[in-house]
Amino acid sequence: MVLDYSKFKELESSSEEIHINIDRKTWSKLKKNQKEEKKKLLQEELTSLENKSNKTKEDLKRMDEISHKLKPKFVEVDSSTFTCEKGSICDQGNSTVVDFLQPLLFLMTHNSLTDFINLIDDNNYDLSVFEEFCLYNLAENIKSKNEAEAKILSKIALYFKFSIQNGKSFVKKLNASLGDEKILAQFEKEVEEFYLTCKESILNLKKE
């Protein structure tokens, strides 16, 4: 299946402040290592607190703080960013865009194809607009070097791609077939390839 990456073309690259005595490559690697180490330490602290049998109020407060810091970061957009055709789910008299942030956050933690199908079946979302919001956040997470989050968003983006290009019946058949280990492995491989292609596309845009 040929995938369309044109929606990434207009995303602006974010600038990074480089230390005067460090080249860009070394600086980027240093920042990435620092970020990963900080995230690892926070996760270890959270696990330690969760394993405590008698948690104090301070423990619970700290757990909330850490959970908030570890939560995937997303970019909220307003009606000026995504426009919707009259009569769509986005049109509420004044073209107010539906809030896709909460459903996307839900899919980040409930990201099986079954979860996706249920969410789409239960809500009248404009899939094209929702897909664009997902791709926008995928691009932002790639630029921010949030690899784990970007890979999950890549999988969700593929769900949208399959749904829009092939229809719900195809997606439901695919979901039923994922119980086969070979098909599941092939799907996971496609997700990884999609992520790597998106990553290359975004990083090339940053160089332009």
UniProtKB/TrEMBL annotation:
Keywords: Coiled coil. The keyword Coiled coil applies. Residues 24-66 form a coiled coil. GO terms for molecular function: protein kinase binding. It comes from the Eukaryota. This is Uncharacterized protein. It comes from Tubulinosema ratisbonensis.
